[in-house]
Amino acid sequence: MTQQRVTIARIYIREGEHLLNRVLNFLRKEENVAGVTVLRGIAGYSDAGEWHTASLIDLALDLPLVIEFFDEPERIEMVIDRLQQRLPVAHVISWPATRHTSKP
Fold first, then answer.
1. Which residues share a beta bridge with 71?
2. Contact status, residue 54 vs residue 63, Cβ threshold 8 Å
3. 75 and 33 in contact (C-beta within 8 Å)?
4. pTM surpassing 0.85?
5. Tens of pLDDT along 49-100?
6. I want to staple 71 with a disulfide (CB 3.0 to 4.6 A). Which of 21, 30, 75, 93 is the partner?
7. What is the CA radius of gyration of the chain?
């Protein structure tokens, strides 16, 4: 088993911001980061405290989205800088982690 130091980053956006495809294209086509996952939230609120929820009553189309990606620490720092220069993503967090693989 091989271990590698990586940094995980998360971007918090809403469906209504229409940024998902732009961010994914940037991460894959321009930066080719090691891994990306998108999670759709069932509830969340923004800076202004406005709730965005999934309910049968309103069938919300503005749910929270979390775009999580990882790569080598130095690469992630550069990717986040470039991403924030090009796209209006205000909520980005990151933390160190260890990648465990069975590849030699």
1. 7
2. yes
3. yes
4. yes
5. 777 776 655 555 788 999 999 999 999 999 999 999 999 999 999 999 999 9
6. 75
7. 15
